[in-house]
Specification:
Number of helices: 14
Strand order of the largest sheet: 1-2-6-3-7-17
CATH architecture of the largest domain: 3-Layer(aba) Sandwich
CATH class of the largest domain: Alpha Beta
Strand content: 15-25%
Shape: globular
Largest sheet: 6 strands, mixed
Amino acid sequence: MSTKTDAITAIDEYFDAGAFMNDLARRVAIKTESPEIERRPELYQYLTDEMTPYLQDMGFTCDIHENPKPDGGPFLVAHRIEDPNLTTVMTYGHGDVVRGYDAQWREGLTPWKIVVEGERWYGRGTADNKAQHTINLAAMKAVLETRGKLGFNVVALIETGEECGSPGLREFCAANKDLFKADVLIASDGPRLQPDRPTVYMGTRGVFNFTMSLELRDGGHHSGNWGGLLSNPGVIMAHALASITDANGKILIDAWRPKPMSNSVRRAIADLEVGGGEGAPEIDTTWGEPGLSPAEKVFGWNTFEIRAFECGNPRNPVNAIPPRAVAHGHIRFVVGTDPNKFLPALREHLDAQGFNAIELEAERDIMYATRLDPDHPWAKWAIDTIGDASGKKVAVLPNLGGSLPNDAFADILGLPTIWVPHSYAGCSQHAPNEHVLAPVCREALEIMTALWWELGEAGTPAKTAAA
């Protein structure tokens, strides 16, 4: 009789023989840049030519669904139903990536080909998210081939618009709940707390993106002739931005500040040490909300960031008073904060400060905050299983500091959500030189193989509840 050890041996051989790298390299080579409209054919290619045959080979039935929103990418929904009475897991990944920024990568690197330097595997999408769903599906395949069956049912969703805010995903889930009947979501995205520490999180902070713009006149005017006579939109915008936080990043708009953390969240966060490993930036301990630990700032609080600020022509500045200034900001927020109040509160704040001329506009769909209690039966089962498989103490996050469309699964589909990330904070995600760490990928393959194996055994929360 085959055992879990046999399945883990098989997944180690898959990695050591180079098969994992080959699968990942094919996927990285497909330029699935969802922010670029001309890449829509590549989004379809990833689903139809790459992922569909892979899943069909595992016995899945696969369907490509169009997005209900015109600016959204297609969805792949795949099912493998062994027995309707078995536990059904939903898993998720996104095949799209941010822009490649090809010219900005370090010499010798390219976004669309894996380049190996020591333990680092470089390539766009390696960390976010192609390696992560490649790991999960490969581990599932190892269980299937070792045991001859999974012992559970699977609904797999791969979307192609996550890097644009997942347009249409919530509407698609709401309109097709029958496609996603499951007991739990188990998926992977984002970073581990530390590269060598397996991590589980049960939700995410939300994200709200918006634009602040100020246009005072048509065209620029010579600063020698008009300096001191014409107001400068860049100066005005800088003062407006400075009124939102203090000089150390503490949010000054009351409606943007979250409710105090509960004791259970504080206890969970107390065990966490934030850091990205080698190559990660050094934490500015005096930045952000005073009185909070670094972990509390990332996992239990709201933060405001300026993503871009443009005035005049930054690449070719001239001696003129610019006509316009634009700032792109966003707020990461935790459960208990209403993002629909962000812009009205900012409007009221700016007006009170005399910045009535600044216009505000939301940029894209909101990703809402979610959080599953760490004491939930599915969370405890996953944490215990991963701890046993790795022999390490698992880092348990009430929610990820980043944002994912988890509200589509937690709120719309009503699923307990378990996320097991396979990247790390220093991976240069969304930036040039994105990469994954080979030892983390190998360990993640073993962990996910053990997790899928145990899901097919007796004793999962779904089976215990049904007994």
